[in-house]
Amino acid sequence: HGESLNQLQRSDALLHVVRGFTDPAVPVSREAESLETALPGMELELAMVDLGILERRLERLQAMEKGAKPQERSALLQERSLLAQIKEALEGEVPVRAQTFSVEELRLLANYQLLTAKPILVALNLGEEELQDVAAREEELRERFKSACADFPAARIADEPDELTTNLSDPTADWFFVRYAIASEQIEEVHQAGKRVFVVGA
C-alpha cells in the first residue's frame, strides 16, 4: 500500500479506468460496478488519503510553533492556516484541484503531492457488445459521466474540422480531443465557446 501511494504521489496525473460492462466472470466490488458509483467512490478514497496527510502535517506544525523564533512562527502559522483551509474544503467534498490558490500557495502545496490536486483522466472500459453502438451512445455516456461527477470535464473526439464545428455547442462536452492538424482559427473558436481542445494522434 505504501509503495503504491508513493507512486501515485510522484505522478503528474492519474488515470481512472471505470468498468463499463457487465460480466459475472469478472468480479468487482459494489462501489466499482458502475460509472455512477465508481467516480464518487474514487474521489472519496483520494480525499481520505489527503486528509490523513494534512492532519499529520497540521499536528507537526502545531508542535513546531512552540519552540520557533518569531519569524519562523509567522511562516508556520501561514502554512497551518492554508492547510486548515484546504482540509475544511476537502471535508466539504471539494477536491484540491477545484480550490483556488495564489502562486505562492501553489509552490508550497507542491511539496505535499496531494492526490486530489492532480488532474484525473477517466476512461470508460466498455465490453465488446457496447463497442458496436458506442457512437450512438456517446452523448448518453457523457451525460451519465457528468451526472456522476459534475466537477470532472467530459471530452468529445473530433476526427475532422466539420465534426468539431457541428458539436461545439454540445453541453456534455467540455473538451475536444481532435485527431487532425487543427487550425489556429478553430482553436480560438473552441476557446470562445468556453471549452478546451487537445490534439491527439495528428
Question: Could you explain the architecture of this structure?
Answer:
- The protein has 202 residues and is of the alpha/beta class.
- Helix content is 51%, strand content 13%.
- It has eight helices and five strands; from the N terminus they run H-E-H-H-H-E-H-H-E-H-E-H-E.
- The chain has helices spanning 2-10, 35-66, 70-91, 103-109, 128-131, 134-148, 161-166, 184-192, and strands spanning 14-20, 120-126, 155-158, 175-178, 196-199.
- Strands 3-4-5 form a three-stranded parallel β-sheet. A two-stranded parallel sheet has the order 1-2.
- Strand 3 (155-158), helix 7 and strand 4 form a beta-alpha-beta unit.
- The longest helix has 32 residues, at 35-66.
Set out the fold topology.
Layout: H1 2-10, E1 14-20, H2 35-66, H3 70-91, H4 103-109, E2 120-126, H5 128-131, H6 134-148, E3 155-158, H7 161-166, E4 175-178, H8 184-192, E5 196-199
Parallel strand pairs: 1-2, 3-4, 4-5
